[in-house]
Write a structure and sequence with these properties.
Blueprint lengths: L1 H11 L6 H11 L4 H11 L5 H14 L4 H9 L7 H18 L5 H8 L4 H10 L13 H9 L7 H15 L3 H8 L7 H10 L9
Length: about 210
């Protein structure tokens, strides 16, 4: 436990960014069994310090592709954390799961999470996989990424809609016509859809030169 306490002390000194916390998680997981790592991560998540809960979240992300219990903890428990910094790490943890598991193989879970009733779960997908078309599978199938994201254009959460709009904007840099054609189908008389449209169409409506 002495080494664990040193890692905790180290991450608690982090005031900006996440790389130090991420590297601490990598150090922790190396050489430890999955069961031990999961047990400690669950305990760390009870900490009052957001840095320690972020450490736990990174650890769970490392385990998730091989541990349904870790993936469930991320979805059911971490998503309810009220610190936005922990939610940023949740997005990274979900992307790590998809990377380790394979993005195409992760489609059922991606669809499950992106349809979840908890806004932070939905956003962990939309934000975690940015830039979507820079990820394997979605690089070759950008239309699938657009389809998944577009279903949240009228999301009740402005937090989620912002992530969706920005993600579609990212994709439009390389797939302008694909995004343009999708946006033409949207009902922008709906205020929430219009907000997402404004973000997604930033480069579409920008005049060349």
């Amino acid at each position: 436990m002495d080494k664990i306490e040193k890692l905790i002390q180290r991450v608690q000194e982090t005031q900006h960014g996440f790389l130090n916390i991420q590297s601490a998680a990598d150090e922790f997981v190396a050489g430890r069994s999955m069961n031990e790592s999961l047990s400690v991560a669950e305990r760390l998540f009870t900490s009052e310090a957001y840095q320690v809960r972020s450490l736990a979240t990174f650890i769970l992300g490392r385990l998730a592709a091989q541990s349904n219990e870790s993936l469930k903890f991320l979805k059911d428990r971490v998503s309810l954390d009220d610190d936005w910094r922990v939610q940023e790490i949740l997005a990274k943890a979900f992307d790590r799961y998809c990377f380790d598991n394979g993005y195409e193989q992760s489609l059922p879970v991606i669809k499950e999470w992106i349809s979840d009733s908890t806004p932070n779960v939905r956003r962990s997908v939309t934000e975690g996989l940015r830039i979507w078309t820079g990820r394997p599978y979605f690089r070759d199938h950008p239309e699938i990424a657009v389809q998944l994201l577009s279903q949240l254009r009228n999301d009740e959460s402005a937090y989620v809609r912002k992530s969706v709009g920005n993600s579609l904007r990212d994709i439009s840099k390389k797939h302008k016509e694909l995004i343009k054609n999708e946006l033409q189908l949207w009902d922008t008389s709906n205020k929430r859809v219009a907000q997402t449209y404004k973000l997604a169409s930033k480069f579409i409506n920008k005049k060349d030169g």
